[in-house]
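Researcher: I'm preparing a figure for a lab meeting and need a structural model of a single chain. I don't have an experimental structure, so a prediction will have to do for now. The sequence is pasted below. Please return the structure as tokens so I can convert it later.
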Amino acid sequence: MVRVILPQHLRTLARIDGEVALNIDSPVTIDAVLTALKAHYPMPRGTIRDYITRCRRPFIRFFACEQDVSREPTDTPLPTAVASGAEPLLIVGATAGG
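Model: Understood. Here is the structure written out token by token.
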């Protein structure tokens, strides 16, 4: 069971309270997590990654075990602690401005 924590605006859009738990087969990757998330919660699709290019949106970041994995290839296996559910995958909406 992989635990995922979404930013508040996406939790509101998907009508989710708290974190999400997803069953994902190995290997657990960002692609696999986003595919499972879209299958269970279709409302926020297109807000995390582009429909066509499947690239991460500019102000979205992924954190696994307190490490920013946003620039890693999305088919790279996530750390064992995330894959086992011991640690959550955080999807963070970055803020900008002054």
